[in-house]
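Instructor's aside before we start: the two examples that follow are unrelated to each other. I chose them only because their records fit on one page, so don't look for a connection. First example below.
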Amino acid sequence: MIVGINGINIRGEKKKILSSLIALLKEKKFKVYISEELSKTFTDSKIKLYSENNISKFDFIISFGGDGTLLNTVTSIGRKNIKILGVNVGKLGFLSFDVYDVFEKIIDDIQNNNYTLEKKSLVSLLPVNENINKNFALNEISVVKKDSSSMIKIHCYVDNQFICTYWSDGLIISTPTGSTGYSLSCGGPILTPKAKNLLITPISPHNLSLRSIIIPDSAKIKLIIEKQKYNFLVSMDSRSYTFRGEQEFIIKKSNFNINLIQPNNFDFFETLRKKLNWGFDIRN
């Protein structure tokens, strides 16, 4: 089998862990490649590099890091339909798994096709600006103020039905995967991974009665950002683009999925209990 490994800013103890994982993969007769991004902080002259243009032959890619690294891996893969195994050596880790201590079992399971493949939906932005060559996001697409403390004014429609005008610091359009990310920190609800929905969550709205709204993922969202004299940002996961003046965007579910490898015993609610301390008494 052929496997690629992607990582960002791998230093200290993480280098030792990664070296041991690579040694294990080679012991199990894997052909191992590392990304150009990973090679910036992890060098091994015996391992070949891969780029986005030559990954179609891979059986899967290991995202070695945290959720940010996994989002970076998703960006590089795009529509290529390659499986991703997220190995968490970061902090929170909702998308990647704390499996590096049982890595050998996970690899054995992959070799024996003993795992679950979860298809994650994405959202896409239209129209595609000439500076945007990847118009999709796994977590969320957000419109956020940039050069002023003043709020921005966003008219929002769902399937051409007007919802309201948001006076706020911005607006987040989130997938179920992204519901545990930026949207959650802005007061949005958590969606289970198999929910067929999208979330619209305002960022610090002027009208305090405005809250997140859940809509079907078959819906088409239209955002009209009213003309103003300041720049604003449109962000797709970790990638941001600057716009100015009145703009109109369409956001909808992407026509492709991302395939994440999960252990068969993965439990989403256990992850919530562990990562968010649900049900634990943490009072002083």
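Example two begins here.
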Amino acid sequence: MEQHEDNIDVAICGAGPVGLALAALLARRGLEGKRIALIDARALGQAISDPRSIALAWGSRQLLEEINAWPLAATPIHTIHVSRRGHLGRSLMDRDEHKLDALGYVTRYGDVVDALSRTVERAGIEVIRPARVATLDESGEHVTLALDDGRRLTAQVVVGAEGGVFGAQEDKAHTRDYGQSAVIARVTASNPIPHRAFERFTDEGPLALLPQDGADGHGYALVWCVRPERAALLQAMDEERFLAELGDAFGARLGRFTKVSTRFAYPLGLNAEPRATTRTVAIGNAAQTLHPVAGQGLNLGLRDAAVLARLLARCAGPEAIGRFIDERAQDRQATIALTDAMARAFVGSGPLQSLLGLGLATLDAVKPARTLLAELMMYGRRGGSALLPHRQG
């Protein structure tokens, strides 16, 4: 039986937050919904029920507001406390100093997908799910995608926006294995500080606590980076032992940790080689998988989507891809360098760590330096410029 073949302008592989945002932004910039297709391997209900916590920068909120995917059920971050375990020195950033309502927001992955899916539906954009791309054939004039359900699409441009984590399958020539795993969970504490986020550097890696309100009151999303063997032990511990270990690593700023959810772990590494051909391009985690320190991954991906949507809305073809690579190079390189440096610099012990701790104290005492740190952290306003019209050159 002959299969129907749809002709479209842009096919987006991956309907997570970055892929959905790209589709919504394309429609916002004038591309007809019927000229866009989203392909995703997961059913919508499965994606919406995803409980993972994610942090959105101020610029990412601006993007979501532009496409009517805000407000969300999100906990605002008013202050950020950065410190080095066992060493003097810390830096504290406050929203008032930056004249913002919040330095960032913590929400559920599923809530972001839900809001963006509604925006995409209102725009008349088809989401093909669950489905996978079986083959992709690029010619000089278009790209043909054969899906595993037998459907075929012909697109002018194909965008890879599928998420992922660092793993053994990555091209080792363009990756870095940090020798760490991230343990993620939700925890509660006896003396929470509302709307304050913590980035605590330990000998094994960073430990982040992001404020996230829930049914249990003021809780925290935990991202704890440790050696893989340590991660396995932390996952296997009973709740009491795990909470005691967390308290020892973090300190007593929040009193005692009293409860923890199911714990998950995944390997950490850097994959910083964005893929592109004449008519295909990758964005978000499909283009760069980053260490979670400073939480730059999703926010960088949303900035990718904002720029690519502006260019594809003008002309969905090879010229847009070339310009996208050029325009995104500086932000991508700076963000990758930042996360890579932070992931490696604070790991280990010895005199260097004392100097780094004192460096945090110096940052806290010098307002311009403190402002720069806030701008570079995930909760800052980095990314707003991606939404503004670019001068023609």
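The mean pLDDT is 82.
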